[in-house]
TrEMBL record, chain A:
Its EC number is 4.7.1.1. This is Alpha-D-ribose 1-methylphosphonate 5-phosphate C-P lyase. Catalyzes the breakage of the C-P bond in alpha-D-ribose 1-methylphosphonate 5-phosphate (PRPn) forming alpha-D-ribose. Belongs to the PhnJ family. It catalyses: alpha-D-ribose 1-methylphosphonate 5-phosphate + AH2 + S-adenosyl-L-methionine = alpha-D-ribose 1,2-cyclic phosphate 5-phosphate + methane + 5'-deoxyadenosine + L-methionine + A + H(+). Keywords: 4Fe-4S, Iron, Iron-sulfur, Lyase, Metal-binding, S-adenosyl-L-methionine. It comes from Tabrizicola soli. The keyword Transmembrane helix does not apply.
Automatic annotation (TrEMBL), chain B:
InterPro entries: AAA+_ATPase, ABC_transporter-like_ATP-bd, ABC_transporter-like_CS, P-loop_NTPase, PhnK. The keyword Nucleotide-binding applies. PANTHER family: PHOSPHONATES UTILIZATION ATP-BINDING PROTEIN PHNK-RELATED (PTHR42764). This is Phosphonate C-P lyase system protein PhnK. It comes from Tabrizicola soli. GO terms for molecular function: lyase activity. The keyword Hydrolase does not apply. Keywords: ATP-binding, Lyase, Nucleotide-binding. Residues 21-261 form the ABC transporter domain. Pfam families: ABC_tran.
């Protein structure tokens, strides 16, 4: 079979219509999980089948696509999805956050602030924030319907009782516009403040669970907390060893077996951009 | 939609001599079979009503209908002057986690086994909007004390508790929002007699101190003798006899009640 045997962006037009309807409904009801007829994609579940379908439904020929996985443009997941759309849609691709019109992401929000007109697509493994607290889907839907979110705080209570602080460090639940409690996908809670009031459209696709939800631009998303244990965005208490950035989210890299380690920006585009401007960290070399 | 104030409980406008719970002709069928039929009673504030009967007599069906777990086919339930069956689901669920409580026979059904004792007690508080960790924990410690669970067990999971402790924890979890009406389904089932005695003692104290109205379902006549003011005897889904507890137990009128009373082993 040749590449020409595929429709633009792999999915057929009827499927894309169906997904767009789900996206529009998700945008109309921020934070609400819209069911959609998720298709089999040519990749395993857990590799971003939901995100890929949302991206496919959003792409137009003039788009420039950026794909990141844990902040990096050059990891397997990011590279294969980027190539997938290069082949099936022929769209332009970029690694620069500011130049991209559609960004598909796994587990991070880029450090560079997003702008109006950009679309950020999240890959979501488990869209239901209440899942590990209440296993019954019928019951969790009822809880969303009736706004019974006390259970979410039971989880945070357990964190404090056991660890002395809220230990949930990723997939930290947020309340959207005072209504739906939403799982922001497994982004670090460092990124939670960027969810709120973001000028870009944020779309969340869960392929296996067949759910799409969305945050329209400038939507309020409040991280849940207690009055006496307020929410804090956390990161490793270091600077980036390559570019010296103080306020970006860091990956810890073990460099040898004698305790050597370095901290680097998880957002590769942000780090490279800073180094190009001449910033140098502890272990970096001047560009 | 604006958010309701979580601490705004329904207005308590009832006059003291009005019944808290009124049940009229309650009927629940399972297909052609009768779950319970034509049950009517009134429950006044501070009153404990026992429901006894053999297995399959419809006691638990009746209790589930009252607590809103099942939808009855016929009849009316009114609580505090409000028609429970006509209420919206939001209001009914709200009622069932503030003003009502339900103690399951098996504490595993009523507790979250993966959550610590403190979290279990605090859940209802958080469900009605409490968002201050220190205060929630304070209330949990207070209630664990009231049901005689040591404060240093607050971070243990219920799975580390004995059966009697689990049952007391379940009671604490239910009473923390100061409900006025408590449904109990065989609260002493599966416990040995000495633990049963302590639990009954505790329940009697709580009922008296908090002025609770209780509907208690059991097959153990000793439990109703100790706790219940009034008694309903059920057989085949119907109420065959009701009256003051001592009166029914000491002078049973219906043949089935006589059988039930005479079946109790005298030690």
């Amino acid at each position: 079979m040749t590449d020409q045997a595929y429709n633009f962006a792999y999915l057929d037009e009827q499927t894309k219509r169906m997904i767009r309807r789900a996206i529009l409904k998700g945008i109309a009801v921020p934070g609400y999980q819209v069911p959609f007829a998720s298709r089999e994609m040519p990749m395993p579940y857990g590799w971003g089948t939901g995100g890929v379908q949302v991206t496919a439904a959003c792409l137009v020929p003039g788009d420039r696509l950026k794909v990141i996985d844990q902040g990096a443009d050059d990891t397997t997941n990011a590279v294969s999805i980027r190539r997938f759309f290069q082949r099936t849609a022929g769209v332009g691709v970029t690694e620069a956050t500011a130049e991209a019109t559609v960004i598909q992401t796994r587990h991070r929000i880029p450090e560079t602030p997003l702008a109006e007109g950009q679309i950020l697509v999240y890959q979501v493994p488990i869209p239901e924030p209440l899942r590990f607290l209440e296993p019954r889907e019928t019951e969790t839907r009822k809880m969303h319907e009736l706004e019974e979110y006390g259970l979410m705080h039971v989880k945070l209570y357990e964190d404090i009782a056991r660890h002395g602080q809220i230990a949930t460090s990723y997939a930290y639940p947020v309340k959207v516009e005072g209504r739906y409690v939403m799982d922001p996908s497994p982004i670090p809670r460092f990124d939670n403040p960027k969810l709120s009031g973001n000028p870009a459209i944020q779309l969340f696709g869960a392929g296996r669970e067949q759910r799409i939800y969305a945050l329209p631009p400038w939507t309020e998303a409040v991280s849940l907390d207690f009055e006496d244990h307020p929410f804090h965005a956390t990161k490793a208490p270091h600077d980036c060893d390559l570019c010296g950035a103080k306020h970006s989210y860091l990956d810890e890299v073990i460099t040898d077996d004698t305790g050597g380690r370095m901290f680097v920006c998880s957002d590769t585009d942000f780090c490279a951009g800073r180094r190009a401007k001449g910033h140098v960290g502890r272990l970096g070399e001047a560009a | 939609m604006t958010l309701q104030d979580p601490f705004e409980f329904p207005q308590r406008t009832r006059a003291p001599d009005q019944p808290l719970l009124t049940v009229e002709n309650l009927t629940k069928r399972y297909g052609p079979r009768i779950g319970c039929a034509d049950v009517s009673f009134e429950l006044y504030p501070g009153e404990v009503l026992g429901i006894v009967g053999e297995s399959g007599s419809g006691k638990s069906t009746l209790l589930s209908c009252l607590a809103g777990h099942h939808c009855p086919d016929l009849g009316r339930i009114s609580y505090d002057g409000r028609d429970v069956l006509a209420m919206s689901e939001t209001d009914r669920r709200r009622l069932s986690r503030t003003d009502w409580a339900y103690v399951h026979q098996n504490p595993r059904d009523g507790l979250r086994m993966g959550v610590s004792a403190g979290g279990n007690v605090g859940e209802r508080l958080m469900a009605v909007g409490a968002r201050h960790y220190g205060q929630i924990r304070g209330r949990a410690v207070d209630w664990l004390g009231r049901v005689e669970i040591a404060a240093d067990r607050i971070d243990d999971r219920p799975s580390a508790f004995s059966g009697g402790m689990q049952q007391r924890l379940q009671i604490a979890r239910n009473l923390v929002t100061s409900p006025r009406l408590v449904f109990m389904d065989e609260p002493t089932g599966g416990l040995d007699v000495s633990v049963q005695a302590r639990l009954l003692d505790l329940l009697r104290g709580l009922v008296r101190d908090l002025g609770l109205s209780v509907v208690i379902v059991t097959h153990d006549l000793a439990v109703v003798r100790l706790l219940a003011h009034r008694l309903m005897v059920m057989k085949g889904g119907r109420v065959v006899e009701q009256g003051l507890t001592d009166q029914v137990l000491d002078d049973p009128q219906h043949a089935y009640t006589q059988l039930l009373v005479s079946s109790v082993l005298q030690v």
